[in-house]
Specification:
Mean pLDDT: 87
Number of strands: 12
Number of domains: 1
CATH class: Alpha Beta
Strand content: 5-15%
Radius of gyration: 22 Å
Bound molecules: NADP nicotinamide-adenine-dinucleotide phosphate
CATH architecture: 3-Layer(aba) Sandwich
Number of helices: 13
Order of helices and strands: HHEHEEEHEHEEHEEHEEHEHHHHH
Structural class: alpha/beta
CATH superfamily: NAD(P)-binding Rossmann-like Domain
CATH topology: Rossmann fold
Helix content: 25-40%
Length: 414
């Protein structure tokens, strides 16, 4: 795959939240063979069977009779939305994390501290002997580590919801591909690093799914989200577009207005995850939206409309070919991926199975408005340093270079 295409993929659903929360891509070889699980059958939606009778947990957070949920993670982006959704449905929620990320969040819920990696510090000790109705694993990136939590929790939870990614698929070239599409593989499944271009993220997610399934056969929900967006998104990828459109003037718009875009509002995903737990839905699900087909042009027009028509933004569409690596430098135009070549169907996954299992979507305009409102609450120094997209200088430079192109060099008719 050309490195420019790899770059687009690595900027996609791959690793944004990891980078934002400081997860390392530095080498960390694992001598212990980890995956432990071969391929498993495709997704069904049967209710999860009851957990094995033994060993019995010595304590249960369900002693009050309330529904109980453990979240592995909980203080990043998706986690807080899950906590809110679960609390709204009457769940008693427990978080397990290291206590490093936003420890001030949720003072009213139980927090257990440790490390997902059983080889680090107290590891998973805080989870031992405890029971919950279900666990949602938001923070699993390495199969050895997912295997450890799934095996430990298998006797004491009924369902394991693993948050994977659409990046788990081997290819992104078949429009409408569903959950039966082959997943990515790795030559050495014991590698635990993300790789230079985060190219191991997807294959590792696929191995994590398999490790969870091997530990709790028939009781796992493998959720493969596309771009998760909305208020509190630490990556600024989707956020870049409403913020950029609001700034107005000539906006570099990538590809063509008809290039497809799939995104899911974090609040819609979180509400559905809790519904999946309530219904004990298991199987494999692509989890992206929105409700109606969206294009890059539609997204930018929606941003403009959400600003009450007051924005003077005008869009200059710059071809995917030009954006491959102008001047040898990769271009960060977040969310979008070229609607050709290896990424042509990245934003065209089938979501029928999740919809049938109750996934619903708010209007894109609501996501745009709420994201922009949230952005404006951030301190000026944070707003001054967006984590994705083009700086005004880089955008102007690219637009100049685009205009200087000889006619017919990949330009769209103006
Ligand atoms: N963002 C997207 O567009 C997108 C797309 C597709 C899939 N996904 C997937 O969606 C998931 C969402 O991630 P999120 O960050 O938003 O989840 P989250 O549940 O909000 O937060 C991640 C949490 O994991 C904890 N954590 C990290 N490393 C840990 C460790 N070694 N041991 C214990 N706790 C640890 C962090 O807290 P401490 O630092 O305090 O430990 C943090 O609370 C990820 O699995 C991601 O791959 C995201």
């Amino acid at each position: 795959m050309p490195s420019s295409r790899r770059h687009f993929l690595s900027l996609t659903a791959a690793a944004g939240s990891m980078a934002a929360f400081g997860c390392s891509s530095a080498p960390r070889p694992s001598p212990a063979a980890a995956a432990g699980a071969g391929p498993v059958p495709g997704g069904g939606q049967a209710p999860a069977p009851a957990p094995p009778a033994s060993p019995q947990p010595t304590a249960s957070s369900g002693s009050s009779g309330k529904k109980t949920l453990l979240v592995l993670g909980g203080t990043g982006f998706l986690g807080p939305a899950v906590v809110e959704a679960a609390k709204a449905r009457g769940y008693t929620v427990t978080l397990f994390n290291r206590g490093k990320t936003r420890p001030h969040l949720f003072p009213d819920i139980e927090k257990l501290h440790g490390d997902r990696d059983p080889n680090k510090g107290d590891g998973l000790k805080a989870l031992a002997g405890r029971a919950w109705d279900a666990v949602i694993d938001n923070s699993g990136y390495v199969p050895r580590i997912v295997k450890a939590s799934a095996e430990l929790l298998a006797p004491n939870v009924q369902q394991y919801v693993f948050i994977s990614s659409l990046s788990a698929y081997a290819t992104h070239t078949t429009p409408g591909a569903d959950e039966a599409a082959p997943v990515a593989t790795m030559a050495d499944p014991t590698v635990e690093t993300m790789g230079k271009d985060f190219e191991n993220y997807g294959p590792l997610k696929a191995l994590c799914e398999q490790a969870a399934e091997a530990a709790m056969p028939g009781r796992v929900t493998r959720v493969r989200p596309g771009f998760i967006v909305g208020p509190e998104d630490p990556t600024d990828r989707f956020t870049y577009w409403p913020v950029r459109v609001e700034r107005g003037g000539e906006v570099l718009a990538p590809g063509t207005p008809l290039d497809p875009i799939q995104i899911i509002d974090v609040r819609d995903l979180a509400a559905w995850l809790v519904a999946v737990v309530e219904a004990r839905t298991t199987g494999i699900f692509n989890a992206t939206g929105p409700g109606e087909p969206l294009t890059m042009g539609g997204l930018l027009d929606t941003c403009k409309a959400a600003l009450g028509g007051g924005a003077n933004a005008r869009f200059t569409w710059v071809s995917a070919k030009f954006l491959e690596k102008p001047g040898g430098e990769p271009v960060d135009l977040p969310i979008w991926a070229p609607a050709e070549g290896e990424t042509q169907a990245f934003h065209l996954r089938s979501t029928e199975r999740a919809r049938k299992a109750g996934l619903t979507f708010r209007a894109v305009q609501e996501t745009v408005k709420d994201t922009l409102s949230w952005w404006k609450t951030l301190p000026p120094e944070r707003q001054a340093k967006p984590r994705a997209g083009l700086s005004p200088e880089r955008e102007a430079e690219l637009l100049r270079a685009w205009r200087a192109q000889p006619r017919g060099a990949g330009k769209l008719p103006q």
